[in-house]
Specification:
The chain has 15 helices and three strands. It is mainly α and about 400 residues long.
């Protein structure tokens, strides 16, 4: 290419709508390689560099960091000194990128979008926290500020995750433990309300202040925890759609799976006696700290928590046991009434002595009395008639 076809740094900056200072900086960073130098040492650029420069300007306008801009450019658009762009590689508005270059650009933009989304989430949490403190009652404002300030600039569930890692019984596989933790730790909302900020602040305080002694106090103690937690996870998954639909506790597959998990973990069978035993255990309820945990976690997510599923299944078992007990009571009552009716019928069928009868006279035979009595006619086939003594 002839020297007069090259563009000076001022000409290229003017055509792209950027300052000479910015163009020189990007060129020094390797984003826009120069094609040549004039005799006086001035930079010269290929005409195709204009499209590359426009791409750099657009990405920087979206606050894409320089290393990521360079990565996007290297996806098929890098200009070496003295080299022009190949066919189909121009970044002008009327020409499209090749597949590789387009994918590289899409990846860079997606990463930046994710980063911006995270920054917006932090800002929304900060806004809700400030609103919470601002709207708090004067006597409680300092306490609320302390709770919210303990969350740090970027709210994180790390403290809650550590709490569950300490709480779960030993013997669980790594995969099952991770699944339980993922299900138990609530996902933070991207646009929280002031009330949700306060709920998470209290949840953060609750799980962060738990001592080892407290963990031991309300850690579940079961012979085979892996069997129990694996079965409970399945039972909770089965109960979730029913909870979402707003239905009350009912019998069904979820309850059967729930009871079977408890039974298998203890080496027992799912029998009516075991269900009554399990019902008595569950009637005592969870540890107060755990009840408080699920209450706060429920304020952070619209989805049913594991605690809500556990309560629903426990209530379903309690309702089933109550129904069975009522049926047993009704059955005993019916049997009692039948016995009473049979007794009354027998009493009515055997009346007492007739009025005016001689002392010692025998009563008339009642229905079903077919045995011959002393004085009866013993003739075969003859009609029995009572003879006077």
């Amino acid at each position: 290419m002839l020297p007069h076809d090259l563009l000076s740094i001022g000409e290229l900056a003017e055509r792209a709508g950027v300052s000479v200072k910015a163009l020189r900086f990007w060129s020094d960073q390797g984003l826009l390689p120069e094609a040549d130098r004039s005799g006086g040492g001035h930079r010269r650029y290929l005409p195709e560099a204009l499209e590359r420069l426009r791409l750099i300007r657009s990405l920087r306008a979206l606050d894409v960091p320089l290393p990521e801009v360079l990565r996007a450019l290297d996806g098929g658009h890098s200009l070496g000194a003295g080299h022009s762009l190949g066919a189909g590689q121009s970044l002008g508005g009327t020409q499209s990128l090749d597949a590789g270059a387009d994918q590289q650009l899409a990846d860079v933009v997606a990463e930046r979008l994710e980063a911006v989304t995270a920054e917006l989430t932090v800002l929304r949490w900060r806004e809700a926290a400030l609103r919470l403190v601002h709207e708090s009652e004067p006597g409680r404002r300092a306490e609320v500020l302390r709770l919210v300030g303990a969350l740090g600039p970027r709210p994180s569930t790390d403290t809650v995750v550590r709490y569950w890692r300490r709480l779960l019984p030993t013997g669980l596989s790594a995969g099952l433990a991770s699944a339980v933790v993922d299900a138990a730790v609530p996902t933070l909302p991207e646009q929280p309300s002031p009330g949700q900020v306060l709920a998470f602040a209290r949840l953060h305080e609750l799980t962060g202040a738990v001592t080892d002694a407290c963990v031991v106090d309300h850690r579940p103690v079961v012979p085979r925890p892996g069997v129990l937690y694996d079965g409970l996870r399945e039972a909770y998954d089965l109960a979730a759609p029913v909870l979402d639909a707003g239905r009350g506790p009912v019998e069904g597959e979820a309850l059967d799976c729930f009871v079977a998990a408890h039974a298998r973990s203890r080496g027992r069978s799912d029998t009516p006696a075991f269900r009554r035993e399990l019902g008595r255990e569950l009637a005592h309820g969870e540890h107060p700290a755990m009840r408080r945990y699920w209450q706060l976690a429920g304020e952070l997510t619209p989805q049913p928590t594991l605690g809500a599923a556990h309560d629903w299944l426990s209530s379903a078992l309690s309702a089933q046991l109550a129904q069975r007990a009522a049926r047993r009571r009704r059955g005993r009552s019916r049997r009692c009434r039948r016995r009473q009716r049979r007794g009354l019928t027998a009493a009515a069928a055997v009346p007492g002595p007739r009025s005016g009868a001689a002392p010692g006279a025998r009563p008339l035979p009642g229905p079903g009395t077919d045995r011959a009595q002393p004085g009866d006619d013993p003739r075969p086939g003859g009609r029995a008639c009572r003879l006077a003594p």
